[in-house]
Design brief:
The structure is a homodimer.
Chain A: H1 2-5, E1 8-11, E2 14-18, E3 29-32, H2 35-43, H3 50-67, H4 73-88, H5 95-110, H6 114-141, E4 149-152, H7 170-177, E5 183-187, H8 194-206, E6 210-213, H9 218-224, E7 229-232, E8 236-238, E9 243-246, H10 249-258, E10 263-265, E11 272-273, E12 285-286, H11 290-293, E13 294-295, E14 298-299, E15 306-307, E16 310-315
Parallel strand pairs in A: 4-5, 4-7, 5-6, 7-10, 8-11
Antiparallel strand pairs in A: 1-2, 2-3, 8-9, 9-16, 12-16, 13-14
Chain lengths: 321, 321
């Protein structure tokens, strides 16, 4: 699947991204040559998914580093620090972003040639992400059986990572490679419809059967459509296991327990934040009310009404039922 | 509030309806002079809500009856039977529709002047609906306290009934009249957004504070926003109390129980179907996949993906937690 391979790349000194806000209607690439372009892409969710924005931020720093190659060491580092500061202001919830920035900056700060070191580190992170997701897929596929109907939320697939396997969708892809007949149910995931637009798109591209439903249909699907497992990704996992993910994940976990359906979180180690003791300390990302208020230019909430738009929120661990 | 008064009216031999598919952007009335117009309005959800479609169907029959006034008794009855047959094919879940048709037809079949009788019966049902909803409001308001934050789903307000109070929103309106400071949280209710478009519109018109959220945010709102009660309407209530309502209601009930939040169903007696023993026998209304697949002309689900679209489904009673 060519598309998934190219969620984000660093090529010819440019950060090249799929503009995911245009999917599934249009497959357009953005070519960033400055850090503002990269930061805007993260803020506007043109690239989204915790691992993908981590790799994108690392590539952004590599781009700045290479643009300053040959300059004095202090000048390179100052340019990197400014870029890092800008990137840190894009999204508060996903820990991979901060982890990626810190990792590239630490390497640059301690290297003789910070430009070279930053570029190397970003490339290493990209390759690690691909490898990690393949391993998540291998481990997760062991849990899947012929006939499984897997409900997922938002998009934790190739488009949420550097590419190919993704996190929550990796077990599904590997299970299909192994010849298991599994299928996917994708919550459309309001307000931005990443499940309908991105997860379904990925599944169709891969030839994996997928059915889109609205979040309000999830309990119905568990009771009437034979959902056997729920697999979701994570934006941050606290030291105690509390997990922050796209709004709706917590409710889905409660519904899965009610129906006796196993609920899995698939994420790389970089999503675990040992510095955050519990979900209570994970900041909730409230996004602009217009995301709920308008759709494709049409007002769907009347003026004068309030709007709630917590986009990412911690799911406190619930005891197994 | 002038708007709520006119959800549906019978005036100058026409059935006059608000086209609710255009709200909140545009307030346009449809004037039906034939039964096909009335049936299409019900099928296309231009008028929706179990009590409203019951009254609309009754008005449709009254219109046909008056158009045939002065004709032979057999001819009037034949025209009414044909109209009733057409109306019965519009929506399968809401029992009020069948109840209303049966009530008008029974009265017409046994009357000397079936045209006069049908028109009288439809008018009586209209007035009863207004009165019943006022009473639902009075009873329900006793349960509400200063500071209550009431989550509701879809629209069970004036726009779902003949007008003014509605069912699920009636307790809120009466409580506000009594000076209680209560506010409403409205699930947007995908795919057709009746919560965002209609419930929020009604609340803004009435000056009642309302906040719109997506279904995926309901569990978050229960845990973090201090929701104190959930009130929903019903499309049909089986003899054992199982309730069918807009998709999402069942999941909301599970989440309310998890959070220890009282969950109320507000409905008139005409919604109770004693001929249906349990929710298992209530037909599920699956609607067209395009409702989920496209939004305001934009494709949001890729071609090749399946779509689940059960619009109305029974919520089996869950034991109190």
């Amino acid at each position: 699947m060519g598309v998934a391979m190219k969620t984000v790349e660093f090529r010819d000194a440019e950060v090249v991204l799929i503009d995911q806000t245009l999917l599934p209607g249009e497959l357009r690439f953005i070519r960033c040559r400055d850090i503002e372009c990269v930061a805007e892409a993260i803020e506007s969710l043109r690239v989204r998914g915790a691992p993908a924005i981590g790799v994108t931020a690392a590539f952004g720093l590599a781009m700045v580093a290479l643009q300053n190659r040959g300059e004095a060491r202090e000048k390179v580092l100052a340019a990197l620090e400014a870029a890092a500061e800008r990137l840190e202001r894009t999204r508060p919830t996903a820990v991979n972003l901060f982890w990626a920035i810190e990792r590239v900056m630490r390497r640059a700060r301690t290297a003789q040639d910070p430009a070279e070191a930053a570029a190397e580190e970003a490339d290493a992170m990209y390759r690690e992400d691909l490898e990690t997701n393949r391993k998540i897929g291998e481990h997760g596929a062991e849990l899947l059986r012929d006939g499984d109907r897997i409900l997922t939320h938002c998009n934790a697939g190739a488009l949420a990572t550097a590419g190919v396997y993704g996190t929550a969708l990796a077990p599904v892809k590997v299970a299909r490679e192994q010849g298991k007949r599994v299928e996917v149910y994708a919550d459309e995931t309001r307000p931005l419809l990443q499940g309908a637009r991105l997860t379904a798109f990925e599944m169709v591209q891969e030839g994996i059967p997928v059915t889109v439903l609205t979040e309000g249909m999830a309990a119905f699907a568990m009771r009437e459509e034979g959902i056997t497992k729920v697999i979701v990704g994570a934006d941050r996992i606290a030291a105690n296991g509390d997990t922050a993910n796209k709004i709706g994940t917590y409710g889905l976990a409660v519904l899965a327990r009610e129906h006796g359906i196993p609920f899995y979180v698939a994420a790389p180690l970089s999503t675990i934040d040992r510095a955050t003791p519990t979900g209570e300390e994970i900041p909730i990302e409230f996004r602009d009310r217009t995301e709920v208020e308008f759709f494709n230019g049409r007002r769907v909430v009347p003026e004068g009404a309030g709007v709630l738009n917590p986009a990412f929120a911690p799911r406190t661990n619930t005891s197994p039922g």
